[in-house]
Design brief:
about 25% helix; alpha+beta; two-stranded parallel ribbon; about 180 residues
């Protein structure tokens, strides 16, 4: 089922999320719905707060970015209760977008390597390092679980310059092909 994406300004996007318990009812269906929603919106990642759920869960599928990097072809995962242990390397800039900030893209600086512990959909624990685009997508989605949106990563001056665009998003003055949930 395709779910509405909560856009910038919705309070759930600013909340620190809660752990997912093993007995979370309907977790498999929720993960499936998140993938369907993400694909419908042409995204590469989606965090639970973006669909109104304040839980520590995000999904990633980078196959659409695999033209330049074939390792991205089969990088499809659910991350439950993730914890970033460490980020390493010299920050690099990449132009990011976000389903919760439709029509808006900006250059964001992030470290190129991330060490993360997480559970998969079977609650098997993984402890892994990721780099490059994989690390960037993980860091972006992980930020959502911490109540951070990528525009928070911009300089104070840049945030001031884009304030009008962000206000337009909050007011629903955007057009996208996917369902969105705006602030009331």
């Amino acid at each position: 089922m395709i779910l509405p994406v909560y856009v910038y300004g919705n309070p759930v996007l600013r909340q620190k999320t809660n752990e997912v318990e093993k007995d979370f009812e309907g977790l498999g269906a929720l993960i499936s719905d998140m993938f369907e929603t993400m694909y419908h919106a042409d995204g590469v990642g989606l965090a639970a707060p973006q669909i109104g759920q304040s839980i520590r869960l995000f999904i990633i599928d980078t196959h659409v970015m695999s033209e330049d990097d074939e390792t991205l072809m089969n990088f499809k995962k659910a991350f439950i209760n993730p914890k970033v242990i460490e980020e390493q390397g010299e920050e690099w800039t990449y132009n990011e977008g976000c389903l919760s900030l439709p029509t808006f893209r900006e250059d964001v600086r992030r470290k190129p390597k991330v060490h993360i512990k997480y559970q998969d959909e079977n609650f098997v624990t993984h402890d892994e390092w990721f780099d490059g685009i994989k690390a960037r997508v993980i860091q972006h989605e992980y930020d959502h679980l911490e109540g951070i949106v990528f525009s928070d990563k911009l300089s104070a001056l840049k945030r001031k310059l884009i304030k009008g665009k962000l206000n337009d998003i909050m007011k629903g003055k955007v057009e996208k092909k996917y369902k969105m949930k705006f602030v009331k």
